[in-house]
Specification:
By secondary structure, this protein is α+β, with helices and mostly antiparallel strands. It has two domains: 230 residues, P-loop containing nucleotide triphosphate hydrolases (Rossmann fold), CATH 3.40.50; 121 residues, OB fold (Dihydrolipoamide Acetyltransferase, E2P), CATH 2.40.50. It is 24% helix and 36% strand. Helix 2 packs across helix 3 and helix 3 packs across helix 4. The protein starts with a strand and ends with a strand. The mean pLDDT is 92. The structure holds adenosine-5'-triphosphate (ATP). This is Lactose/L-arabinose transport system ATP-binding protein.
Length: 361
């Protein structure tokens, strides 16, 4: 069993606290991705799991064993870095086998493990090359191979695809997903790329300024974010936020008026506690959740500013009074820059947040 459990984990650099009591349970065999903006503490968390960074408070356990004082080499983990960290003077084969040879692993077993890793990653033909004779994608494969040969209980990935071009990133992302299926071991993966997080993760941990904002399956976070930060971070293009005001609450609903759209109103069914009448709130609407005018929603006239046509979908960046909205349209409903049109939002396809960013249910 290689579950990873973080209990009230705190990290301070000097007096500066960068992780404020993280509680994260990662199940055996699960693929968990840490995401969040730059500086939120995701690499620090990963490095604490790896044992490359001391923890200032709390507890980290791997496979049920507390690891706080266990050396990195004895934690049963292998880490893959963005920078590959290959030995330039060694061949691929030597890079793969080096750690095992240094540990005195039996020769036949080392050969078996190297061969298996090479097969899994399709790098059999590169074994006699040196890192400088490899492409970026091939180097990253070798770096992953070095982790595989260790046969770890847990793989840790720190932004492993950041140095690759867009096409290779997609290709390697699929390979990592396949690797997880094939090996079935626990993987913890750090990225600031929410597409990587959405596509790879069984569950995503969203971090902000050293705090865990929400943990959940990708589509649960997408459909049911706990707060405005998670709503804005998960999803590309981003959720639209539209300023509104509560004008009335009655019969399990709040009537909200859009502040910048000529008094347009929406009836939003809610549970108690209701927000106060007069409260400033924000409506969150995903780009794909705008409807055609006249379909029974709350109408907003807009003017297309920039239209991006990607083939299967189009995105229109539209001016709506003092707000800019990103609207996804089917290709058949493309709009050109400068077009005036009306979109509509519906209560069941919008989320409501209070002034602090907390979700109003
Ligand atoms: P990025 O996406 O930019 O890599 P991150 O979310 O991985 O960011 P961390 O590298 O974990 O963020 O850093 C979290 C905070 O801790 C940042 O404010 C960073 O400046 C600080 N920090 C990281 N390492 C050290 C260190 N060795 N000494 C002091 N502060 C540090």
């Amino acid at each position: 069993m290689a579950a990873v459990t973080l209990t009230n984990v705190v990290k301070r650099f000097g007096t500066f606290e960068v992780v404020h009591g993280a509680d994260i349970d990662i199940a055996d065999g699960e693929f968990v991705v840490f995401v969040g903006p730059s500086g939120c503490g995701k690499s620090t968390l990963l490095r604490m799991i790896a044992g490359l960074e001391d923890i200032s408070g709390g507890k980290i356990a791997i496979g049920g064993k507390v690891m706080n004082d266990v050396e990195a080499a004895d934690r049963g983990i292998a880490m893959v870095f963005q920078s590959y960290a290959l030995y330039p003077h060694m061949t691929v084969e030597q890079n793969l086998s080096f750690g095992l040879r240094m540990n005195g692993n039996p020769k036949a077993d080392t050969e078996r493990r190297v061969k298996r890793a090479a097969e899994i990653l399709c790098i059999d033909e590169l074994m006699q090359r040196r890192p400088k004779q490899l492409s970026g994608g091939q180097r990253q494969r070798v770096a992953i191979g070095r982790a595989i040969v260790r046969e770890p209980q847990v793989f840790l990935f720190d932004e492993p695809l950041s140095n690759l071009d867009a096409e290779l990133r997609v290709q390697m992302r699929v390979e990592i997903a396949r690797l997880h299926k094939e090996l079935g071991v626990t993987m913890v993966y750090v990225t600031h790329d929410q597409t990587e997080a959405m596509t790879l993760a069984d569950r995503i941990v969203v971090l902000k300024a050293g705090n865990v904002e929400q943990i959940g399956a990708p589509l649960d976070l997408y459909d049911d974010p706990a707060n405005r930060f998670v709503a804005g971070f998960i999803g590309s293009p981003k959720m639209n936020f539209i300023a509104a005001k509560v004008v009335e609450t009655s019969n399990s609903a709040a009537i909200v008026e859009l502040v910048n759209h000529g008094g347009a109103r929406l009836r939003k069914p809610l549970c108690e506690p209701f927000p106060a009448t007069g409260a400033e709130v924000v409506l969150g609407v995903r780009p794909e959740h705008f409807f055609e005018a006249g379909e029974g929603g709350c109408d907003i006239p807009v003017k297309a500013d920039v239209a991006e046509h990607l083939g299967s979908v189009s995105y229109v960046y539209a001016d709506a009074g003092s707000e800019e909205l990103i609207i996804e349209r089917e290709a058949a409903r493309q709009r050109a820059s400068g077009d005036h049109f009306t979109v509509s939002i519906k209560a069941e396809r919008s989320l409501l947040f209070d002034k602090t960013g907390a979700r109003i249910r």
